[in-house]
Amino acid sequence: MKTLVCAINRLSLAIILGTVLVWCSPAPLNGQPKLQYPNGEIKLGTVFNGSSKTARVALKNVGSDTLRIHNVRTSCGCTTIRKPKEILLPGESDILDVGFDATGFRGRVTKYISIETDDPDAKFVSIPMTADVAEELMPSGSSSFLWFGTVPIGKPSVQSFTYINITKRPITVNSASSSSPHVTTTLGKKRIAPGDSVTFAVTLRPAQEGYASADLVLHTDSKNQPRVPLRVTFVATRQ
User: Fold this and answer.
1) Domain residues for 46?
2) Contacts of 109 (CB under 8 A, 6+ apart)
3) Above pLDDT 70, what percent of the chain?
4) Tell me: the pLDDT tens digits for 5-14?
5) Cα 24 to the center of its chain, rounded Å
6) Number of domains, the chain
7) Measured CA angle at 121 (ends 117, 125), to 5 deg
8) pLDDT of residue 186
9) Phi, psi at residue 8, to the nearest 5°?
10) DSSP 27
11) How far apart are CA 202 and CA 218, in angstroms?
12) What is the CATH number of the domain that holds 194?
């Protein structure tokens, strides 16, 4: 009889201890991070060729666990980013700055911002960003590129390029600058009436063999398009 009572007492004690252990054990962690980001495309609106514009993208962790941002990248070298914090605590937010350089573009342009996180429901996020690239001085050939082709090293080669004032007000070209000493122009200060055009000569004298490019910029008094870019490309060869 005593043996049976002792067995019952030991069983009761084991049940009580097991219950205490269950009550004292930490609850399982069910929280997870959750990325909140803009729904739909980011619209930059009108951006003039030769200028740039920046968008601010708000990111927030609306989950109940720490959010880790592994990587942020864009689909084109024409865009720059200031990356947000790598870690966002629950309820914390940060701003992602994205800059778009419209030089050389025309019309509607769409680029993408890709974000990689440890949010199990949004590990890879792609946000479209659109811009409408406009011009006030429009190239006559509808292209901001001037191709010289094959040019012998050390020998000058000259081509002309024309811009048309498509606005309803006069635009003055104050000066021109080049990113390379081997690409020059003699264009001086010139006032262009609405509907009129300006043609200037571009001189190339390459000094090194191979494919190369340079940026030639017209500086104007226009508030919308103070910089009018022209990309000059060529292949320099030895005679």
Assistant:
1) 35-134
2) 100, 102, 130, 131, 132, 133
3) 87
4) 444 445 444 4
5) 52
6) 2
7) 50
8) 84
9) -65, -40
10) P
11) 12
12) 2.60.40.10
